[in-house]
Amino acid sequence: MSLKLKVMRILFTLITAVLLSACVKPVVRQDPQLAGTSNKAVIAQKEKRKFATPDLNKRLWILPFTKSYATNEEIERYHVPAILQVELFGETGRATNPFILPTSDQRTLKAIGIDSSTDHEELVKIAQGATVAGFLKGDVLSVEVVEEEEAEGVLRTRKVMLKVRVRYELYDAVSGRKVHEGEVEDYFAETRSDVMRLTNKLSQPRKKIGLVANKIAKKIMYELIPYSGKLGWQGKILKIESNRIFINSGRTTGIRLGDVLKVLERSRDIYDPDSGMPVGAAPGRLKGTIKVIQYFGLDGSIAILQSGGGVFPGDQVELY
C-alpha cells in the first residue's frame, strides 16, 4: 500500500471518529441506587438524605393548640385546634417519622390539664419527669372562608376557599430551650353553582376542615424532621426484678440489643442561696452502666447491670 493511501485512510478514520462523537450523547454517571429514576425521584432522594433522621426516635408531647381566630358561625361550630391535634397524632404513627407519641403520656397530660397555656417552667419539669424528649406547642392563627366575586345572572359559579394558618413551636424538654418555630398555612377550594342567589355555604365543612388540617399536619412534621436530632433523649427505669432492669424505651425508640446505657440520678433544680431564684437544673450523679439484653411490650427493654450500683426505679438512662 502506498504512503498516500495510508495517509488518506488515517484521515478518514479520524474524521469518522469526530463525527460519531458529536452525534453520541455523553454518558452521565449516576448514583447506582438512583439509576433509571426520574429527576423528581433524584431530588426526592437527595431531600431524604438531607433530612436523615437520627438512630433514636424521640418521644414527643403534642400539646393542645390554642385558638386565636374568629370565624363565621358555620366554622365556629367545629373546634379546629382539636381536629389539627388528631391529625398530628396520626402523622407520628408513620414509619418514616422520627417522633414517637407516647399514648399513655398523652392520656396523663390530658388528665392533669396540661396544655400550651401552662407555665413553661412547670411544663418542662413535668416533661422531664416523664422522660419526654420534646413538646410541640401551637396556635391556630386564622380560619377563613373566602369567596371569589360572584358572576352575574341566575346561574352563578363561584370558588369558595377554606384557609387555615397555624403557628407552632418545638421545645427540647431536657433543656427547656426552643429548638424551632414556624408558620404554615394551607387551603381547600371548591367551585359551587348557586341558583336564584341562594345563600352560599361551604359544603361538608367538617370534612373540609379535616382535609386542610391533615395537609398542615404533614407540613409541620416535615419541617420538624431536621430538628429531631437536636432533642435530648432520656429513658427511665420502670422496675427492677432480681437482676433484670426494665426500661421505658425499646425497639420502637431505636434501642438496640447490646446497647450500653448510663444510669443517672434525676436532675435537681439549683437555686441561688441569696436571691432564692432558680439557676438551672443540674444533671444527676452517674450511678453506673447497664446493658440491654431483651425487648418487652410495645416499646420497652430489659437490661442487666454492667458496672456501678445503687440503681432504683425512677433513675434516668442515657446512651453511653
The succession of helices and strands, N to C, reads HHEEHHEHHEEEHEEEEEEEE
CATH topology of the largest domain: Rossmann fold
Structural class: alpha+beta
Mean pLDDT figure: 80
Number of domains: 2
Instruction: State the end-to-end CA separation.
Output: 81 Å
- Rg, nearest Å: 30 Å
How much of the sequence lies in strands comes to 25-35%
Query: What would CATH call the class of the largest domain?
Result: Alpha Beta
Helix share, percent:
25-40%
> Mind telling me the CATH superfamily name of the largest domain?
ABC-type transport auxiliary lipoprotein component
| Regions with little confidence, pLDDT below 50 for 5+ residues | 24-37, 45-54
Quaternary structure: single chain
Q: Which architecture of the largest domain does the CATH hierarchy give at level 2?
A: 3-Layer(aba) Sandwich
**Number of helical regions:** 7
Shape: flat
Question: Total strand count, please?
Answer: 14
Biggest sheet: strands, sense, closure? 6 strands, mixed
Structural notes for this entry:
It is a single chain. With 320 residues, the chain is an alpha+beta fold. It has two domains: 57-230, ABC-type transport auxiliary lipoprotein component (Rossmann fold, 3-Layer(aba) Sandwich); 235-319, Thrombin, subunit H. The strands form three sheets. Strands 1, 2, 3, 4, 5 and 6 form a six-stranded mixed sheet that branches. The protein is flat and about 90 Å long. Strand 10 (268-271) and strand 11 form a beta hairpin. The protein is built from seven helices and 14 strands. It has helices at 3-23, 39-50, 73-76, 80-92, 103-111, 120-129, 205-224; strands at 58-62, 66-67, 99-100, 134-147, 155-172, 178-195, 235-241, 244-247, 260-264, 268-271, 278-282, 286-296, 300-308, 316-319. The protein is 28% helix and 34% strand.
